[in-house]
Amino acid sequence: MGKTFAIIEGGVTTPKGFKAGGLHCGLKKTDRNDLGVIVCDVPAAAAAVYTTNLFQAAPLQVTRESLAEEGKLRAMLVNSGNANACTGKQGEDDARTMRSELAEALGVPKHQVAVASTGVIGELLRMDRVSAGIAKLPSALAADERGAEEFSQAILTTDLVKKTSCVRVLVDGQDVTIAGAAKGSGMIHPNMATMLGFVTTDAEISPSLLQELLREATNVTFNMITVDGDTSTNDMLVAMASGLAGNKELTREHPDFAAFADGLRYVCEVLAKAIARDGEGATKLIETTIVGAKSDDDAQAIAKTIIGSSLVKSAAFGADANWGRIIAAIGRAGRPVNVHTVDIKLGDISVLQQSRPVPFDEDAALVYLKGDTVAIRVDLNDGSGQAVAWGCDLTYDYVRINAAYRT
């Protein structure tokens, strides 16, 4: 079955009705952008999913408050360089001040502004710098590729590359665009989320259905990646739908609903895989596919256990075809497995059949594992459940980066 959408060049400003921008306000020691905004010309249907970490940063509370009013947003404000997490009442006041100042600068209701932050935990924001930057944001807005680029740069921390995706779907004969931008490199073990993600679309859709779709897409994309097993205090995925594409309102009964859902899921998957590939110090993406599990839920748990294993990640870095680490991870995932029927492949190289080792070409395996993507396929031969998860290798650079994160 072919794709129900077209992959196109674009960013968060490509859907109708959106502008974006970014600038350097002084939160980062370098001159890279550290303050960004996405603005919609009209109140956009909005939805969000949040980290499950109990120590949730102040911006998450403010965003929840905004969305609780009517499920609509006009603007999404983001700073990098400071997480505004574990900063007490002052941090909450600062997040609300950010919301109010941007609302005033744009001339929109404050409950239609959401806030996100990323960076070092436990330090108060330099609000003099943030406020000065917010005042300049309206003049930094652009509805073209430049605005999307400046925003994408503003949300990065230890990321090496920006992460974007864009597709076009036909709904009621109208072109509907879905685009996204994300950041994430370390503290990545979503549930949800340990990253920041922003999705824009010009589809006509209700906030409640957008929320359902965003959660469903998250469960099979962002919640299926890991870099280091750490779930952050800050991170979330926010979607905004302007409704300006001209389609009839999407419902689950709409004939083009599945195409739109596929497009949204694809955008989220591209962003999620980009985060996994850009893990701090990473040299390769690890993709683990599980089939033949008793249920999809079991397959998801097993896949995430494999990609989260420090030993599997280290073996991938060292190009070592050590399938014993994979089967050990399967066995400790806490899900039912027939221990006599497991097959494992590294790429196209079979290393285990019916839970017994099979001879394979070590030299060919070495060449394969030295590539920039390692595909692990596990067939449990015990049901119809399946899942895919993504991670990265564990390298010397990961330790170096995180040993000196504050300095």
Automatic annotation (TrEMBL):
Described purpose of this protein according to its UniProt entry: Catalyzes two activities which are involved in the cyclic version of arginine biosynthesis: the synthesis of N-acetylglutamate from glutamate and acetyl-CoA as the acetyl donor, and of ornithine by transacetylation between N(2)-acetylornithine and glutamate.
EC number of the protein: 2.3.1.35, 2.3.1.1
Active site: T194
Keyword Transferase: yes
HAMAP family linked to this entry: ArgJ (MF_01106)
UniProt keyword terms in alphabetical order: Acyltransferase, Amino-acid biosynthesis, Arginine biosynthesis, Autocatalytic cleavage, Cytoplasm, Multifunctional enzyme, Transferase
Keyword Cytoplasm: yes
Subcellular location: Cytoplasm
Taxonomic lineage of the native organism: Bacteria, Bacillati, Bacillota, Bacilli, Bacillales
Protein name in the entry: Arginine biosynthesis bifunctional protein ArgJ
Assembly and oligomerization: Heterotetramer of two alpha and two beta chains.
Assigned protein family: Belongs to the ArgJ family.
Gene Ontology MF: a single term: L-glutamate N-acetyltransferase activity, acting on acetyl-L-ornithine as donor
Gene name of the record: argJ
Matches recorded under InterPro entries: Arg_biosynth_ArgJ, ArgJ-like_dom_sf, ArgJ_beta_C
Pathway: Amino-acid biosynthesis; L-arginine biosynthesis; L-ornithine and N-acetyl-L-glutamate from L-glutamate and N(2)-acetyl-L-ornithine (cyclic): step 1/1; Amino-acid biosynthesis; L-arginine biosynthesis; N(2)-acetyl-L-ornithine from L-glutamate: step 1/4
Origin superkingdom: Bacteria
Annotated site (Cleavage): A193, T194
